[in-house]
């Protein structure tokens, strides 16, 4: 059976073999590399009169099938409903949610157009796997065109409780659309419970259809490959230069897209609190925060960028001195070997999103550590990863005092305890890696067996 992966952006490698960053791109690339297939979605380009049929480029065993969208589509579907309404709502941020009927209609229209483009190249046996919140109505649109293939959907971000989700105009339509899938996957038991309960009561007076099959399946990383990259990074000159530039102070690291859900401002403030409470640490520790800009045309992202700059400036100017800067802030992306090398040299991985579907950085940080001298992961309890990674230091990111204490605990943790915690985390990452995740989802999608008989992560 041919696998057809569908996602908003298709991350095709360029001539040098380099492709984009972001959790989904990294995961889907690994999944397709193993089994081959087709990856369909938006090219990332806008044009006034996009072709109706996808443009296909074959690279090895993977065919990349892409379509352009119009500037209006981009505003309404991508920058509008997907990223100003669905994203904040699903990250429990009702106050940031901006809904417009025109944008909702644009979201539905682009899904319909994408479905028509894919329908033109689909074969009867293809297994279709749709990804993420941009494409919730995709299967319903394919069904309208008579496509009867098995179609699965994976939701990479949280699914909030009905009191939050139900506040989103269009929520009832989205549930109806979701019911057209043969299987819906989310990362955590909490999200699966929220989603199942969404189908159990009418939303906005609208009757809801029967729930599709729902599975909680936490995404993994390519653990072996990331670990190997980290091992080789010791010899990488870029990593060596960066590490020596930081001096021999212990390093605390944060790596995130610049997004309000990631809690970057709150994290900087927690680090400030740590330095205020521990004056002896001043001059003796550095926080390296890497945060490439993301969705910068969305006003709420511009705003978080400004807040971050202000907080950073305030902390560095009030606590730093001529020979030491408490926080190094870098707004660019790095190759995976460089990231792996930086993680490996960091005594603490600070992963403190206010809400996150999973968070792959938490997993990459652990995979990159030295088995005989590993660093410590400080992890938000609101990241999906916290459901699995219980040996991390679990914190409430809304409490900067608690996060500050955890930084202190992590820096002072005896080696035996660091090793013991790391081993359990690392074994989990090996057992439940990206290959396990892909295979488990596709098995569940193709199986007629009840879901209770399928593999679970715990
Ligand atoms: P994201 O919100 O993008 O993913 P995350 O899971 O942390 O968040 O993945 C980010 C990826 O981008 C990681 O692989 C990371 O290494 C990479 N990255 C980040 N900054 C980078 C930089 N400066 N340079 C290079 N690479 C960088 C969404 C959901 C998550 C979910 C994933 C996958 O929001 O909750 O875990 O999808 O399902």
UniProtKB/TrEMBL annotation:
Coiled coil: none annotated. CDD domains: GT20_TPS. GO terms for molecular function: alpha,alpha-trehalose-phosphate synthase (UDP-forming) activity. One of its GO terms (biological process) is trehalose biosynthetic process. Pfam families: Glyco_transf_20. Signal peptide: none annotated. Belongs to the glycosyltransferase 20 family. This is Alpha,alpha-trehalose-phosphate synthase (UDP-forming).
């Amino acid at each position: 059976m041919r696998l057809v992966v569908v996602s908003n952006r298709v991350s095709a490698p360029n001539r040098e073999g380099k492709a984009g960053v972001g959790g989904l791109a990294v995961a889907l690339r690994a999944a397709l590399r193993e089994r081959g297939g087709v990856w369909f979605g938006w090219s990332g380009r806008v044009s006034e009169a996009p072709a109706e049929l996808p443009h296909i480029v074959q690279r090895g065993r993977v065919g990349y099938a892409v379509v352009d969208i119009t500037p209006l589509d981009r505003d309404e579907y991508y920058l509008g409903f997907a990223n100003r309404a669905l994203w904040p709502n699903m990250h429990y941020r009702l106050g940031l949610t901006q809904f417009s009927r025109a944008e909702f209609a644009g979201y539905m229209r682009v899904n319909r157009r994408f479905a028509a483009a894919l329908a033109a190249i689909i074969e009867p046996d293809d297994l279709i796997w749709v990804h993420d919140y941009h494409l919730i109505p995709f299967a319903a649109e394919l069904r309208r065109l008579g496509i009867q293939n098995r179609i699965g959907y994976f939701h990479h971000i949280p699914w909030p409780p009905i009191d939050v989700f139900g506040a989103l105009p269009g929520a009832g339509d989205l549930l109806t659309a979701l019911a057209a899938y043969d299987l819906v996957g989310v990362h955590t038991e909490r999200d699966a419970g929220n989603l199942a309960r969404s189908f159990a009561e009418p939303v906005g007076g609208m009757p809801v259809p029967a729930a599709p099959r729902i599975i909680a399946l936490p995404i993994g990383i390519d653990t072996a490959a990331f670990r190997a990259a980290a091992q080789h990074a010791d010899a990488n000159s870029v990593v060596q230069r960066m590490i020596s530039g930081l001096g021999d102070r212990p390093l605390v690291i944060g790596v995130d897209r610049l997004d309000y859900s990631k809690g970057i401002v709150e994290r900087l403030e927690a680090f400030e609190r740590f330095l205020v409470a521990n004056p002896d640490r001043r001059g003796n520790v550095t926080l390296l925060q890497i945060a490439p800009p993301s969705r910068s045309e969305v006003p709420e992202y511009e705003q978080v960028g400004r807040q971050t700059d202000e907080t950073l400036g305030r902390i560095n100017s009030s606590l730093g001195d001529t020979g030491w800067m408490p926080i190094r802030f870098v707004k660019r992306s790095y190759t995976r070997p460089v990231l792996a090398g930086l993680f490996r040299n960091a005594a603490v991985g600070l992963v403190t999103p206010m809400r996150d579907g999973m968070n792959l950085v938490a997993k990459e940080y652990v995979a990159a550590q030295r088995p005989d001298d590993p660093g410590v992961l400080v992890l938000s309890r609101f990241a999906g990863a916290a459901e699995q990674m219980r040996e991390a230091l679990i914190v409430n990111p809304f409490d900067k005092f608690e996060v500050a204490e955890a930084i202190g605990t992590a820096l002072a943790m005896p080696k035996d305890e660091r090793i013991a915690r790391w081993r359990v985390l690392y074994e989990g990452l090996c057992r439940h890696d990206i290959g396990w995740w892909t295979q488990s989802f596709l098995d569940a999608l193709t199986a007629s067996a009840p879901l209770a008989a399928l593999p679970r992560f715990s």
